[in-house]
Each structure stands twice: as structure tokens, then as C-alpha cells.
Amino acid sequence: MCINIKNCSICNEPIEDINRALLRKIRKGAMNFPGSKKEEMKKIHALAFKFSNEKICEYCYLREMARLTTIMRIKAMESSKP
To answer: Shortest CA distance to 17 belongs to which of 3, 2, 33, 36?
Structure first.
């Protein structure tokens, strides 16, 4: 019996089993994601697909989401300054 263990494409650690229903919800949400010209929004969209297709682990997904949302928040604060 061969066990196929997937590794994260970012950190190369084994990907833990994740609830399939949760992955379907994330994929469905990513498909309904509104289009945006912002580079960070496109990266978030791609990141959601990578996670839902089990290409990256949950830790890397959350870390990258936090990084991208922080970048967006900083850019929003900079653009709102007079």
C-alpha cells in the first residue's frame, strides 16, 4: 500500500489532511471573487486556489494572506494621506 503525501510548494513540509468541505468552500469563494486590478488582490485569488487544490499548507496560506492584507492596508493608509 502506497501512501501519497503531498508537500507544500512553499515550505516543502507535508500537507496535513484538511476538511474537504472547507476546501470546496474556499474554492467556491475564490471563483466568485470579484476581479480587481490590484496586484495583491490577484495574488490572494491565486493563493486561495493553491490552498484549495492542496498545493500549499495551511500555515503558508495564512502567513501569505496576512502579508498581502498588511501590504494592502499600508497602501490604503498611504493613499488616504493628504
So the answer is: 3
CA dihedral 66, 63, 20, 34 (to 10 degrees): 30
Collapsing DSSP states into helix, strand and coil, what is residue 7? strand
**DSSP for 11-64, written as a single string:** T-PBPPP--HHHHHHHHHHHHTPPP-S-HHHHHHHHHHHHHHTTSS-HHHHHHH
In tens digits, what is the pLDDT along the chain, a chain of 82 residues? 556 788 999 999 998 888 888 888 888 887 777 666 778 888 888 898 899 888 999 999 999 999 998 998 898 888 887 6
The three three-digit cell numbers of residue 50, written as one number: 493553491
